[in-house]
Automatic annotation (TrEMBL):
PROSITE patterns: ATP_GRASP (PS50975)
Protein name: ATPase
Keyword Methyltransferase: no
Domain of life: Bacteria
Tagged with keyword Transport: no
InterPro entries assigned: ATP-dep_AA_Ligase, ATP-grasp, ATP_grasp_subdomain_1
UniProtKB keywords: ATP-binding, Ligase, Nucleotide-binding
Location of the ATP-grasp domain: 124-318
Length: 399
């Protein structure tokens, strides 16, 4: 255990309740752990035994704080408290962390690189500049550019918020008239969106850990129900880990390595999404984030590989702060899949699911879901399909 005089101090920032394993791991490594979170999350079950101090910010809206207040508060705190490293635990906090690092000159990802892991327009422009395939897109700054784009790229298109997470706020557009109507409705916020070609295909994700600019762990998985289908079609969320020697996994590993290298990833967890075009069979980059994947995908990866992404991310941050080597634990080669649905019952009785492959169950009001694991991917898929059918009939609720 490091002595208090030499203690490295980590400031973790999150406007959502998550990252408990990161906080525990960071503290167990002998660090001082500070947490800044939203006032509305004060009574959540934070691992308080692993946090030295918690500070709260009022939200302007979900995930949004007054950055002047954050900077001023930290400036006061830092008169007597040195901060060595800053970690953003959620997508919405990447920009907060990069701004704070830049202002106080704390090592780590700065605002320019941070944009590539947060701003969907910056991501696409950097990918295109690096010759990484992306669906045809355009910013929404200039009317002439938009006119040129819609003449060149046929509908349907997607209007995407540049800074939302996952499929939040995405709208599908089928005609020029509809597009201009939607742009008019966005008003002064139009610049916060982009326009992209909608290309049907299968959507995949790669969950990675990087150290010194090199990927040391990766797991490729396929969404069996895409986040957009779930968000807009009220579907049931499902994902399954791939066989790592399969052609799809090999293709995903290649494009994922290109993306993280081009975007300047040095050390962190990352969650990246790709689409395989049904028309061309080619992988296209969709988005990436310098954090652990949400929707309990970290648990799915853990049961397939034995790697706790939150814990290992903390170990990597600790190693980078202290100039120590990082060693990845032994990786298992099994398969896992997750199914999660909104539920019409507040506390669903899931006792009808009795398969021994079930290794984790979601405990959340008006939700039902679990993870299954096996040394056979076909068995995982069989279980996911059977369980999805039962959830659809007996439990599923649409918003």
């Amino acid at each position: 255990m490091t002595g208090k005089a030499d203690q490295t101090t980590f400031l973790c920032i999150t406007s959502f309740f998550k990252g408990e394993d990161f906080l525990r791991s960071c503290k167990a490594l002998g660090n001082k752990v500070l947490l800044i979170t939203s006032k509305g999350l004060e009574h959540k079950k934070w691992p308080r035994e692993s946090i030295d101090e918690i500070f709260y910010m009022q939200e302007k809206r979900e995930g949004v704080w007054n950055m002047d207040d954050l900077i001023s508060g930290l400036a006061f705190l830092m008169r007597n408290q040195k901060i060595d490293r800053i970690v953003a635990l959620d997508d919405f906090d990447v920009e907060k962390a990069t701004m704070v690092r830049e202002h106080f000159r704390i090592p780590g990802m700065g605002q320019t690189t941070g944009r590539y892991f947060r701003d969907k327009l910056a991501m696409r422009m950097k990918a295109a500049e690096s010759n990484i395939p992306v669906p045809a897109f355009t910013p929404l700054f200039n009317n002439s550019d938009i006119d040129e784009y819609i003449k060149r790229v046929s509908a349907p298109w997607l209007i995407k918020p540049r800074s939302e997470a996952s499929a939040t706020g995405i709208r599908k557009i089928f005609s020029n008239e509809e597009l201009w109507s939607v742009l008019e409705s966005l008003g002064d916020r139009r610049h916060e969106y982009l326009l992209e070609k909608f290309a049907p295909g299968d959507v995949y994700h790669v969950d990675s850990l990087s150290v010194d600019g090199k990927i040391v762990f990766k797991q490729a998985s396929q969404y069996l129900s895409t986040p957009m289908d779930v968000a807009h079609g009220h579907g049931i969320f499902r994902s399954i880990t791939l066989k790592m020697d399969s052609p799809d996994a090999i293709g995903l590993m290649a494009i994922n390595e290109e993306v993280l290298k081009a975007f300047g990833m040095r050390f962190s967890a990352s969650h990246s999404e790709y689409i395989k075009s049904r028309q061309t069979g080619k992988f296209y980059f969709l988005e990436t984030a310098s954090r652990v994947g949400g929707a309990h995908l970290a648990e799915m990866v853990f049961f397939a590989t034995g790697i706790n992404l939150w814990k290992e991310w903390a170990v990597i941050e600790d190693a980078m702060a202290k100039g120590k080597p990082y060693k990845l634990p032994k990786v298992k080669n099994e398969y896992a899949g997750i199914v999660v649905s909104l539920c019409r019952f507040q506390y669903p009785d899931s006792s009808c699911f009795t398969d021994h492959e079930i290794c984790w169950q979601l405990k959340k009001e008006y939700h039902i879901g679990h993870i299954v694991k096996s040394d056979c991917q076909e068995r995982v898929l069989e279980l996911l399909n059977a369980h999805t059918r039962r959830i659809q009939i007996d439990f599923h609720a649409s918003t």
